[in-house]
Design a protein that fits this description.
This protein is an alpha+beta fold and 412 residues long. The chain contains 10 helices and 16 strands.
């Protein structure tokens, strides 16, 4: 038996790590690709955050700078030399501590300082010390309007609420809009709103009035108030200039024609007027009935002013104290003073009609009375918005003003 060793047969077999491997399953390969993609996305997002990060805020930079300054100061203090203790003798130099020594506080002094609340100075004291004032609020003063503007009426608006909103009188609103809008507002109506109290005027060439005459018409002594008003946007002209027909002017401080204001009424199911200004102290509440025949309310008067779009009745002049007669029979719906410009007033119901008698000097009827046509109900006067003794007489059908002169029997 041979004892020789066969090296070639006993040599171990080496397997290279780079040798051919078995093929991986498809799901493992897909998972590996997915994880690799997620890693790349996260890497890109991190790089984007680093590149687009905003610079530190001012307050952060300020805090960092303060911290750095404090650290530098502490380092300088530490290297300045040995510090003096509270028991050290004071320096001989009056001007400050001895060279090489820094003043310190004892533990007792530190405790006293910590126990003492900080002193808060008033703004006046800070300003006196630093010369600086601090006002955290910016106050913008109210700027007055100088031009006309418009306002769209909303549900629930009245002339009173709109005038208060703009700081104007309700007469100003009435004088710068149509008579209908001044008396009855509808949602969506567009109102002209002037910059201040005054009146509005539309030039009619047929009247031949220059600016001086227009100013006089509205009680203005200086016609340049109209010329210089920014709302009018007029060129440099003289008071004797006649403007083109249709030119609209705002008259600052001007006073227009007398305005009489409608009061709310109530009707029954048949359309009969049964109450006038209900809830007012001088209203008689709901009183149905009335209606006989028409007659002249002031046969001894003088007809001075008629019915038109800006005037809801007729004016009949007479001496103060002249008796006023009921133009038709019916219950008294209102008797007394009112705030609509009529002064002492009587309102009588006549079914769907009602009559109003304004500016009386005194009344001869009161709530609860039912009057007959031709009965004395009061006496001529000049109360309310009146320029002289006269009767302002209205006939209304379901609260809509009618021309009294067109009513048979009235006599005007």
């Amino acid at each position: 038996m041979s004892s020789s060793f066969n090296f070639k047969q006993s040599r171990p077999t080496l397997i290279s790590p780079h040798g051919r491997a078995e093929r991986l399953p498809l799901w493992r390969r897909a998972a590996g690709c997915l994880f690799l993609a997620v890693a790349l996305i996260l890497l890109g997002a991190s790089a984007g955050l680093v590149l687009t990060a905003p610079p530190p805020a001012d307050e952060n930079r300020g805090a960092l700078a303060a911290a750095t300054a404090d650290a530098s100061e502490a380092a300088a203090t530490a290297t300045a030399g040995p510090q003096a203790t509270a028991t050290d003798e004071p320096p001989e130099s009056i001007g400050g501590p001895a060279p090489g020594r820094m003043p310190t506080l004892s533990s007792g002094q530190i405790a006293d300082l910590l126990a003492t609340p900080p002193e808060i100075l008033a703004e006046e004291e800070v300003e006196a010390i630093t010369g600086l004032s601090y006002d955290p609020f910016t106050i913008v003063p109210n700027r007055s309007r100088s031009r006309m503007t418009s306002y769209t009426v909303l549900r629930g608006d009245t002339v009173d609420t709109i005038s208060r909103r703009f700081g104007l009188s309700r007469e100003t609103i009435a004088w710068c809009n149509s008579y209908r809008k001044a008396q009855i507002l509808f949602t969506g109506d567009i109102l002209n709103i002037p910059p201040s109290d005054g009146a509005c005027h539309t030039v009619l060439a047929s009247q031949g009035k220059d600016i001086s005459a227009i100013a006089e018409q509205y009680g203005i002594d200086d016609p340049f108030l109209i010329i210089d008003a920014p709302a009018n946007d007029l060129p440099e002209i003289s008071p004797d200039t006649q403007l083109p027909s249709g030119t609209r002017l705002f008259i600052p401080g001007g006073v227009g024609s007398i305005i009489t204001w409608n009061a709310p009424v109530e009707e029954d199911a048949s359309g009969n007027v049964i109450a006038f200004a209900r809830g007012h102290p001088n209203s008689c509440g709901a009183v149905p009935g009335g209606g006989t025949f028409w007659t002249n309310p002031l046969p001894n008067g003088t007809y001075v002013r008629g019915f038109y779009a800006g005037h809801s009745g007729i004016d009949i002049a007479a001496r103060t104290g002249t008796p006023i007669l009921a133009a038709n029979g019916g219950p008294v719906l209102y008797a007394g003073w009112n705030s609509w410009g009529y002064g002492n007033t009587v309102v009588i119901g006549h079914g769907p009609f009602s009559t109003l008698y304004g500016h009386m000097n005194s009344l001869a009827v009161r709530c609860g009375n039912v009057v007959a046509a031709g009965q004395i109900i009061g006496y001529v006067g000049s109360t309310g918005n009146s320029s002289g003794p006269h009767l302002h007489f209205e006939i209304r059908y379901r609260n809509q003003p009618q021309d009294p002169s067109a009513t048979f029997g009235i006599g005007w």
